[in-house]
Amino acid sequence: xxxxxxxxxxLALVSGFFPQVLxxxxxxxxxxxxxxxxxxxxxxxxxxxxxxxxxxxxLLGICCGLLGPFIVxxxxxxxxxxxxxxVLPGVAMGFLWNMEKDPLAIFxxxxxxxxxxxxxxxxxxxxxxxxxxxxxxxxxxxxxxVGICMMTMIQRLPTGNKxxxxxxxxxxxxxxxxxxxxxxxxVTTVVLLLVFLFYKEFLVTSFxxxxxxxxxxxxxxxxxxxxxxxxxxxVVSLQAVGVVLVSAMLITPAAAxxxxxxxxxxxxxxxxxxxxxxxxxxxxxSFLSNNLPTGPFMVLSATAVFLxxxxxxxxxxxxxxxxxxxxxxxxxxxxxxxxxxxxxxxxGEFEEEGVTFSELSIRRNEDLLEVRPQILDLExxxxxxxxxxxxxxxxxxxxxxxxxxxxxxxxxxELYLTNAVHYAADHVHDDAExxxxxxxxxxxxxxxxxxxxxxxxxxxKPIPTFADIEKGLPTARQSRPATGYMSKS
Amino acid sequence: xxxxxxxxxGEECPxxxxxxxxxxxxxxxxxxxxxxxxxxxxxxxxxxxGSGKSTLIKTVMGMVPSSSGWVKIFGKSFRKNACRIxxxxxxxxxxxxxxxxxxxxxxxxxxxxxxxxxRPKRDDREVAxxxxxxxxxxxxxxxxxxxxxxxxxxxxFLARALAQESDLYLMDEPFSGxxxxxxxxxIELLHELKDQxxxxxxxxxxxxxxxxxxxxxxxxxxxxxxxxxTEEVFNYDLLQKTYGGRLTILSEVADEVxxxxxxxx
Amino acid sequence: xxxxxxxxxxxxxxxVPWQEDFQGYFLIATMGFLxxxxxxxxxxxxxxxxxxxxxxxxxxxxxPGLAVALFLSKSLATTAMFxxxxxxxxxxxxxxxxxxxNSRVKPDAAIxxxxxxxxxxxxxxxxxxxxxxxxxxxxxxxGEIAFIPFEPLIDxxxxxxxxxxxxxxxGVTLLVILGIVLFYKELLVTSFxxxxxxxLGISTRTTHxxxxxLLSLVIVSAFQSVGAILVIAMLILPGATASMLCSRLPAxxxxxxxxxxxxxxxxIHLSIWLDCSMAGAMVIASAVFFIxxxxxxxxxxxxxxxxxKVRLPEVHNLTLDNSQE
Lengths: 489, 265, 325
Ligand SMILES: Nc1ncnc2c1ncn2[C@@H]1O[C@H](COP(=O)(O)OP(=O)(O)OP(=O)(O)O)[C@@H](O)[C@H]1O
Ligand SMILES: [Mg+2]
What we know:
By secondary structure, chain B is α/β, with parallel strands linked by helices. Helix content of chain B is about 40%, strand content about 20%. Chain C is globular and about 55 Å long.
């Protein structure tokens, strides 16, 4: 039985449809495929077609990068997608204008179609019960269907120069000619200028439309201005990136910037930067070999930037967060051991100065094998010293202070929960086990004050005070300077 | 210690909460709640905005995870006894354009007892109609829910809870946006339910009426301030404690916990 | 312009095709009907959960799944491609959730990032291996249902009935109908009020993933004929039209089903008349139905809203008069 999955076509069928389908977008007429040479050719920028591509993709990155943040923060990310599909009938109309690929006619037609699409979305949202996502999807698909039907009708027209119109589906950066570049730079300038002039308006409207309306901003006008600018930039990007992938140039750099900063103006700058990186990077990558399309590489470059931000963003990145969590866990673990040592010393009424490994392992309810590396880690961090001959563990001044503050936090918190929050006495311990690692100095002082500098916790144990910690180990044998702490006092 | 799931009279305790701490994004909003609710009571939950009333109810319903402690419903975990609780949410939580009519919504209350693959029967419809009648919404049975006023919507949700025929009801502000007549009708209904031996926990905002409506009061502000019969609990000191600002240290520490959590999560 | 739109001839558009190639048009109509039925039914629930654009995402990211399956199996074996596409579809939902749960990126942006990246990957893979396999990326965008009759028929019980893709679509449609009939209650409650479904002991998570799985299945088997983008139209338009006209979910579902056949037939004839993409024409037909419902729905149509606006003052006056009497 012949395998027949319907999206698979024999080339013959396809070529009847769109002549240049599989000869996908590539830069220049590259015959030499040696990667190094190609790299050099690209980087030297001698080739005019390379130069045009670089300029084109840079402008595109700026244009999309500037507008992206406004739709990403407004949760309108997919408006870009809708617009890019909705412009297709406009492209066809523009083509029909004088039966050739006239950039200006196509630009006007496509922008109009995009704007009509944006209005349709708004109208559906306002006059029906349908929700935003349905309205977007509906307009997107319907306009696209109209566009596709018109394109197929154009294809069978006997007259006119049809070449190039199919480029709008997948895009081809290298197909940009002089006129396209001029158009692109005009649009970029307009976008730059308007975003600069109306930054305040855009910002307030996207943050809180209700408030913007209340202070007298023409919110609808600003919304449609944004939509118009979006339509412009989508249309000029179509050539390079294609219908499906344009929205990525709007969303992805902006989302990456969103992960890195909290301020809108920084977000704009970063997003423009990422847009340019993605554009030029994509052009570069696709230049390396013979058969590679530009648009998808631009999108993947943008995705790479996004992933880098997703994983490595200093504040929100997955890996820094994971790292911080690890060091947090490590800190809590260390503090718990120090606390255990304190408890042992306290049980011996501070007669002894150090504790043995076996005492600690009993206290912690762990094997010696587990305790040993933990102690070595503490020693490395300079919290304890280990005397090899006696096999005992002694606090350093740092270790002593930390242990004291943990115990103090624990007992203060227990006392607070019992006295002020009226916890049942058997519940306070678990809570304090967590809170002891979290309390900050300011809060501790407040707690002490509110609890009238009470010296005993609910179980009758003494609470070390700031003064105690400063004073040092209350050892009975003052004469024996054994710990680093003693030598300090 | 006696069996914790039974109370003195040997009945099952409808709701028992033990050392419950709840946090949003690791910032605690409820601290160490301990509660044991006697059955057959109409209980008001009272506290200022943001004191965690909705959070408490949602945690009982298993919609918000707790960071420590446990909740038992009739001596079992929520999962096992889910069908014995009826829940009336704060009103904004559903899509009012949803294509269902009033009867459909009330019928949903029966779904829990139906189980997989079974459809509502005549009996279920009958029960749903009766419940609608009880809240005086029978004439509206065929209306789309968007075409109801706020108070009517609230009554539909009440009817849905009734249709669940639960033993324990949790209601989040059932009186918000309801006119005085409806309010007294609802409270009558609640008393009726109580007389049938059901237990009702109702979040309420109006202090003067709270005193008359409820048998018992639960005063909440991040922690359990007091819980007991209304005449014992409803006094100036305790109300002052509940409404007189937060325990500053408690909320500060909550922020500190969140800051530390942010560093790692 | 006159070249573009051929003159309308009833005989040529409506009668001749069926006389000349009944078998072919019957197959196309069947496929179109099955696609819009399964998409429309499941689309209702997708819309109610405000996840319409997830359908968009899944339908795009199917491409790399196909490319990888093609590359791995080195053949055009249907099963391999089907599995590849399905895996890609499910991967999309997982990735979207992963991104928006682990960062502050909102779900809509996450959808945009995931599907464009996967689609770009697919286009590149296909371009790189273009010499080895023949996969037409443009048909992925808007499919071609008109090629259904050229598929070899599958032998059942001694007679050749339908092509494999139509049979598969039929199976998926049955599955969708079965799923909705059996789990109607669960789907309804989890969509309407997740809070209630928790209290009823119905798992929202399980329902969500089952629905997503079913959606992927529908999209994957539909998009070979109508393409990635037009699948979305099929998901949204019939349900949206029906919900303009009815107010209860069961009625909406029935009406959705009822709208499918007329829309398909209208689409076929539109495309015969204009000689354009058949899948596109079907979508346009559905869109026209929606616009008609939008304008003239007696319940919430634009016209009705307008009339009410005009009439409202009158009614108001009337009640005032009454109260004065
Ligand atoms: N989803 C959430 N994410 C983060 N914080 C939340 C969330 N929901 C509630 N909170 C916080 O938890 C606290 C308790 O909120 P909750 O909704 O339980 O209050 P409430 O007592 O019901 O208030 P109200 O009377 O206004 O209904 C508040 O401080 C609120 O800011
Ligand atoms: Mg609340």
